[in-house]
Structures are given as C-alpha cells and as structure tokens.
Amino acid sequence: MVRAVPGSPALHNSDLVVGWHEQTPKWNEATIEWWAQNVWHPDIEWRAIQGAPDDVGWMKGRDRLRAYYAEWLELFDDIRHEILDRHDVGDVVVLGFRVTARSRSSDMPLELVYAVVHELRDGKLVRGREYLSVDEALQAVDGSEAPA
Question: Which of 32, 63, 86, 104 lies at a C-alpha separation of 20 to 30 Å from 128?
C-alpha cells in the first residue's frame, strides 16, 4: 500500500491511484462512500466503456457516481477488483483491471478485464474513462484515437 503524502516529489500519480485501489479491493456501500469523500473530485466526470450495457454517457459529480456504483451493488455481490497493468503517461494514469463479481439474481460469476484512464487534479480523481483494453486506453491518451 502506498503511504506517501499527495504532492510529495517522490509520489507519482500512479502511486496515488494504485494506493486508492489497493485500499479498496472489495466494493460495498462503505467503499463507495470512501471513494466519494477521499478520491473523487467534486467535479468528477466518468464514462463507462462506450456501448457497454452500463454506458449512460458522461456522468458528472459525486452523487451521480454514487448512484452508478449503487446500481452495481444492487445487481452484483462480492465485487472485487485487481490491478493487472499500470502506466504513467504524463499526468494521466492508465490501469488495467480484472473485476469479478457474482450476479445476485442468478448466482452466475462475472469477470471483466478492462482499462481506466485516470486524470487527477489537486490530488483527487477528476475524470475517469473506461476502455475495453489497456492498448485502447493508451491509444486514446496518446491522441492516436480520439475518445468520444
């Protein structure tokens, strides 16, 4: 777990973002509230994978993101995530994830592998965008593929 102070010269943005995720490997109501209070910038913007079943376009603000993740908690139990890949690209952090969960209605397991581009401001997460893969996320950050 990362225990550096935000703004410290030895702290890279990816260290901060990885530290947040390592503190919360399992998602529940308390986790969502911890992220809302400690991680999400008041002006946070978030977008799920474009075209995915949970894609509702850009979501803005802590309350909207709380509601988004509450919907996940209604549908799935035992939601966990693990970091598979990590890239610092300037001030942007790209993380690859594996998320596992179990459907509350059918008890079927779920596994998702995807990537998130994290943009920070003032030590808080101000913008997140999910992609199908780390390669797709890195292309979007490099500007070789404009994010929609």
Answer: 104
